[in-house]
């Protein structure tokens, strides 16, 4: 999601009071400059199932060549968002544009230029991988190019299973066939809905390598996943969805930086008063100290200077930056937003 | 069109590999149709009754039952959703799915009629009317099949949901054949499937040797009745048909 850019800084200022950590601007440096054209965008996107609002006014932009991961809890609205971007359903509110097209109204034109890996295969079990790929080539006649069925299967290391009925493939093999299907029309943009679910670690790593190769080739990738390490391994930027809203968006560094770091140590019983630090100080039993801070370097320096000045030992000293897991659990465990529609500014601590 | 043909070829492959569907779509109606050639039905007179029973049997088993099963199972397995994510239009996906059973009805009707003609050495009064009758049945029952498929959760559920249409078609057929043939028999034309039955009977029992204008005049009420039924069923299908399983 692109929002008003914040000045890049290693030490974001700690906001006073409950902070809208939800929205983090994307990096303006590195190999993904903001100037790259937009591959897809959603503005104030809303999707409803009857009275239930599954997606509540989110803003999202993915740029050409970028790998973007959409994380979220079960029922967060990831698949609904993805299906709307793919053109499977019309939005109930807001605007959506994919490769310059309205994905719902111009679904058939768009289908030639994108690849889809649906959450469920939706392939007849009595067909073979080769038959499905040959069929797909005929169902996307306007694609700029097509991979040969054998080449597509070779790319996902499934060529040895080309003539086996799909119902006889393992769960991981079916996901790889889904990926081959997403690649067969040489797409500019691919949507991957939980691409490695059901794969063993080895197959997952091989799939990640295929996706990395696609990124190098300039293919834009939007993926949803439950695996945080998948997002960490693949994504240029990521967003965490919760209860139909985007709770946080940015590069991995930015998302993690939006959460406080932690300093822990054990002090002696006669330790003098601590210096004035930026973070929140909590004491546990046995003189254990825990400081949660958004200015890790500054507070750690202050604590070390204080210890040297007063001749204090900092036993079991640890300074831990926030992790994506911590951010995710923080968001998933937070109460739901009270203002429906404020899809990009959920507050959590 | 190419998409619809590609999907039809796929459906044909799937039909070949599914013994239950193959038996219901091909073996059962052909055996039933052949048995009516050997043992003429007790209801109705002449070969007109034989052909009407044969074609209605095909419409029931090959088109309605297999078509409903195919649409329901493809939707349940999210195959329809998958095909819809390609460049194929909605019409192509639906035609691709139900085109095979529809085409089989035409082919089987031609085969059974040829057998009937050969066995009894008797030609129909009008082959054109006979073809129109088969096509009218395929189009109207095809439209009804989409409506029934809209309310069918799975292939197994189709065993229940197809029954009302089967019962109505069989009932209408038996009742219509008890009445002396009259192209303007409005009570028969007013019931679902009546138009197709009248066209089939016209093809066998109509005024032989008359001109095209007379034939079209005789066929007009049946064509109008079939068109009306098809329009109503199509409107209902557009209103209720879903591409994905209901939540």
Can you tell me about this structure?
The complex is a heterodimer of chains A (349) and B (247). By secondary structure, chain A is of the alpha/beta class. In chain A, 28% of the residues lie in helices and 25% in strands. Among the domains of chain A are: 38-113 and 188-257 and 327-332, P-loop containing nucleotide triphosphate hydrolases (Rossmann fold); 261-321. Chain A is built from 10 helices and 13 strands. In chain A, helix 6 (201-216) links the parallel strand 6 and strand 7 (220-225). Chain B is an all-alpha fold and 247 residues long. Chain B is 78% helix and 0% strand. Chain B contains 11 helices and no strands. Chain B has helices spanning 2-17, 19-38, 46-76, 79-84, 90-120, 127-150, 158-161, 163-177, 186-189, 194-205, 212-240. In chain B, helix 2 packs antiparallel against helix 3 (46-76), helix 3 runs antiparallel to helix 5 (90-120) and helix 6 (127-150) runs antiparallel to helix 10. Chain B is globular and about 55 Å long. The interface between A and B is medium-sized, with 25 and 24 residues.
């Amino acid at each position: 999601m692109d929002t008003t850019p914040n000045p890049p800084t290693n030490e974001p200022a700690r906001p006073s009071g409950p902070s809208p950590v939800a929205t983090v601007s994307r990096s303006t440096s590195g190999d993904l400059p903001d100037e790259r054209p937009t591959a897809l965008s959603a503005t104030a996107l809303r999707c409803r199932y009857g009275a239930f609002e599954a997606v509540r006014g989110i803003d999202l932009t993915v740029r050409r060549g970028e790998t973007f991961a959409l994380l979220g809890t079960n029922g967060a609205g990831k698949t609904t968002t993805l299906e709307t971007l793919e053109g499977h359903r019309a939005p109930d509110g807001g605007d959506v544009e994919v490769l310059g097209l309205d994905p719902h109204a111009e679904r058939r034109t768009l289908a030639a230029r994108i690849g889809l890996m649906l959450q469920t295969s939706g392939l007849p079990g009595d067909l073979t991988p080769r038959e499905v790929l040959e069929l797909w080539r005929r169902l996307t006649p306007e694609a700029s190019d097509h991979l040969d069925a054998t080449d597509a299967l070779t790319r996902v290391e499934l060529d040895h299973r080309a003539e086996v009925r799909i119902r006889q493939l393992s769960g991981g093999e079916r996901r790889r066939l889904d990926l081959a299907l997403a690649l067969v029309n040489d797409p500019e943009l691919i949507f991957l809905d939980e691409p490695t679910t059901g794969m063993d670690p080895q197959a997952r790593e091989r799939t990640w390598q295929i996706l990395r190769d696609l990124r190098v080739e300039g293919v834009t990738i939007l993926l949803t996943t439950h695996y945080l390490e998948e997002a960490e391994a693949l994504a240029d930027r990521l967003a965490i969805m919760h209860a139909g809203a985007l709770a946080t968006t940015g590069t991995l560094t930015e998302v993690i930086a939006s959460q406080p770091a932690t300093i822990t140590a054990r002090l002696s019983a006669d330790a003098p008063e601590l210096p004035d630090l930026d973070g929140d100080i909590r004491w546990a039993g046995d003189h254990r100290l825990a400081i949660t801070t958004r200015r890790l370097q500054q507070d750690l320096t202050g604590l070390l200077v204080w210890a040297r000045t007063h001749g204090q030992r900092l036993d079991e000293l640890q300074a831990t930056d926030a992790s994506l897991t911590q951010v995710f659990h923080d968001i998933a465990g937070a109460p739901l937003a009270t203002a429906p529609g404020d899809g990009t500014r959920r507050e959590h601590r | 069109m190419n998409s619809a043909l590609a999907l039809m070829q796929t459906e044909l492959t799937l039909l070949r590999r599914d013994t239950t569907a193959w038996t219901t779509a091909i073996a059962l109606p052909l055996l039933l149709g052949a048995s009516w050639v050997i043992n003429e039905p007790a209801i109705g007179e002449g070969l007109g009754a034989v052909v009407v029973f044969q074609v209605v049997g095909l419409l029931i088993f090959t088109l309605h039952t297999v078509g409903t099963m195919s649409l329901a199972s493809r939707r349940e397995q999210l195959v329809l959703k998958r095909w819809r994510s390609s460049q194929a239009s909605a019409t192509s996906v639906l035609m691709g799915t139900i085109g095979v059973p529809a085409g089989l009805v035409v082919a089987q009707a031609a085969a059974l009629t040829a057998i009937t003609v050969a066995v009894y050495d008797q030609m129909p009064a009008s082959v054109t009317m006979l073809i129109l009758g088969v096509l009218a049945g395929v189009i109207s029952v095809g439209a009804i099949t989409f409506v029934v498929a809209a309310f069918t959760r799975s292939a197994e559920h189709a065993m229940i949901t197809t029954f009302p249409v089967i019962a109505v078609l069989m009932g209408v057929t038996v009742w219509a054949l008890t009445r002396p043939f009259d192209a303007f028999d409005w009570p028969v034309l007013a019931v679902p499937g009546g138009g197709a039955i009248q066209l089939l009977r016209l093809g066998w029992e109509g005024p032989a040797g008359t001109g095209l204008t007379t034939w079209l005049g005789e066929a007009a009420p049946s064509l109008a009745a079939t068109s009306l039924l098809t329009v109503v069923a199509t409107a209902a299908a557009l209103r209720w048909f879903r591409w994905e399983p209901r939540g």
